[in-house]
Amino acid sequence: MSLPEQAAALRELHRPGAPLLLPNAWDVPSAVLVAARFAAVATSSAAVARSLGREDGQAAPVGEMLDAAARIAAAVDVPVTVDAEAGYGLAPGELVERLLDAGTVGCNLEDTDHERGGLTDVQAQCDLLSGVVAAGAAAGVPLVVNARVDVFVRARSGDEPAALADEAISRGRRYLAAGADCVYPIMATGDDVIGRLAEGLEGRVNVMYRPGAPSLARLAELGVARISLGSGLHAAMCSWLSSTLDQLAAGQPPY
Question: Which residue has the higher pLDDT, 203 or 157?
């Protein structure tokens, strides 16, 4: 498929109540395994950064992160969407150009301000999102934009989940109006909170599945459009490897 066709296919996979499931990859082998079973591949910035010996939070050079995405896109025959963190300080046109050069057709953009800490000004984030959408349209590839909302990540002790959900909805509605396809209130959990988010954002919600979260089936019932695993698979793989190496070090067969 051409990049415009891949973008259209990826967008179509976002269906509230029948969500797109994205087991996030970090390198070519993990992406190939995902692509053999799922309709799209998403990267995890944390997992990619750690596989490069870096840390998440835009600590890895943008070139290294996008080179990893390009290797993944070249190795699979399904649409690839990139966790582009907060956009790496690139202007929207340059960010889109580099994403398309990597052969990818979607991106996450988060509203954490990595330089100052805390959340990015809502209007500034809307400007970034609308700029990315416009640059994709101008390039002939309508990128699928997943607008990450970090109010739950930034929550303080004593913050009420319902109030955090309301803030996420408020930000998310602005981001959708700016052209985002989906809103990603990362770390949101609980049936009540996720249901509130799905209702307030008309189902255009991405939820991260993690231990203790509602089941995949329940998330579909709650009306979300997209489910990600974040860096969960990479963490599980590292845990398995650590345990296996412990066995080997103890003189036991590793497998």
Answer: 203
Smallest CA-to-CA distance from 9 within 106, 108, 98 is with 106
Q: What is the pTM of this model?
A: 0.95
- pLDDT above 70 as % of the chain: 100
Distance CA 116, CA 119 (A): 9
In a domain, 255, yes or no: no
Q: Residue 80: which CATH number?
A: 3.20.20.60
In a domain, 254, yes or no: no
Structure tokens at 68: 């990893």
